[in-house]
Amino acid sequence: MEDCTFVVGQEFPDVKAFRNAIKEAAIAQHFELRIIKSDLIRYFAKCATEGCPWRIRAVKLPNSPAFTIRSLEGIHTCGKNAQNGHHQASVDWIVNFIEERLRDDINYKPKDILHDIHKQYGITIPYKQAWRAKERGLAAIYGSSEEGYCLLPSYCDQIKKTNPGSIAELFTTGSDNRFQRLFVSFYACTYGFLNGCLPIVSLGGIQLKNKYLGTLLSATSFDADGGLFPLAFGVVDEENDESWMWFLSELHKALEMNAESMPKLTFLFDGKKGIVDAVRRKFSNSSQAFCMRHLSESIGKEFRNSRLMHLLWKAAYATSTISFKEIMAEIEDVSSEAAKWLQQFPPSRWALVHFEGIRYGHLSSNIEDFNRWILEFRELPILQVIEQIHNKLMIEFGARRIKSNSCFSVLAPCAEKQMIEAINQASTYQVLRSDEVEFEVLSAERSEIVNIGNRCCSCRDWQFYGIPCSHAVAALISCRKDVHAFTEKCFTVASYRETYCVEIHPIPGRIKWRKISEGADDETQVVRPPKSRRPPGRPEKKRICVEDLNREKHVVHCSRCNQTGHYKTTCKADSMNSIEQF
């Protein structure tokens, strides 16, 4: 643009095109414009710098929308010093500049906008102006937040029409129909979970960052290959005990509608009391477990000691009560305060050896994986968040359907790999048979007792993971049994294929069903946004340095009484002595 020049007689398609061209030239060539006259038939402007002779005049051609330059006078003598900001670099101009990039990258940050404009045009604009341009650009591309709430009822209807058996329920509050909650579970997800996934459900939530905030609650599981499997999700105006009770009630209904009997499930979550109470009440026959990732991060933040985190994971994976007690004693030696802090979390909720349910080796939930799916979308209006999740589900289900159909082994890829390793290791063992089902398996280090009738081994790996361990494999091979037949059904390729056999169908374009919402006569059908809004300013971010986790927690020391926990200035020793003397 720095080399662009205007000539007399040059034509433009219309007045808008001419205005954009002159604005681009002014910004690129670093001079300010002073517009004398601008309407639909004429345009007259000059350089805003006093004494600069540059002038331009353009008019509309007769019987045509085209604009042409009639006169162009003088050359710039102003030095073109408009670099620290530019009056023509309006929010609308910035929106035009970033629109294509914003379509490709929703997380195009204001600071990146500033950098790109400065790089291309050499001018500096305020951060706030770039932020406003991004907000306006997102609204232009994806629609406003208010419009998203209005279209939610129609979108829920489209989900149920295009994907029969799916659940999309919208709940409002108050006489003015303010949004309160939304629950969505596609039939393909419910069917895949009940017929192919591991009976494990992870629960969690993530804050939305759009104009009206809210929280996205989600329930996920694991497929036969250990992959993330979204089961259901919902949006609530506020995350609290009541909203979790509602979400798990809707989840129970969705599963109950598609299952002859409710399977015994294991729930993984971060230990929030609201989730614990809701799971206990709505899924009374289920097992509950704390997410080990969350628990280890919590102890790391609390005590800033990476060794404690390592020992906690070691204790969680312990396969005997003796080794568990030994590791817990190590934690006590490292930090008695940490051991006391850990007492608030019963081992039956996080340690494999004490857990009463079945986790198939999954100590951590995969909610964080699902949250990463939508991390880049959470600044969008609520309707676009749901659309993006739907699109992501369609893509993932299609890709995994192809992957599962291309598997020709008995077990899913990860389970098959584990089985091959067990078979290779079993070849080094000696097997002694006791009866039809019981064996003693000898290795160089120790011996293990295997019972193929009860599907258990004294090393406990078979019971914990659902796949025969190397000792069990050695026993099964010695009596010519099929090792794959003794693996849990949820790890088979047949289950893997069944998980993704039902398709998630696309939803028609918004233009086709928008008219239904706009033409609704019933005022109660209009859903309004919740009253809570995003506060002004940039939200605070708590950053934790990974290196700090390796540092011991600082303990203050008093130089007056030689005690810890306070400084000399706050020491109460003098005051206590004075009282005693008195």
TrEMBL record:
Annotated keywords: Metal-binding, Zinc, Zinc-finger
Keyword Zinc-finger: yes
GO molecular function, one term: zinc ion binding
Pfam families associated with the record: DBD_Tnp_Mut (PF03108), MULE (PF10551), SWIM (PF04434)
Residue stretches making up the SWIM-type domain: 439-480
Domain of life (superkingdom): Eukaryota
SMART domains from the UniProt entry: ZnF_PMZ
The keyword Transport appears for this protein: no
Protein name: SWIM-type domain-containing protein
Protein source organism: Acer negundo
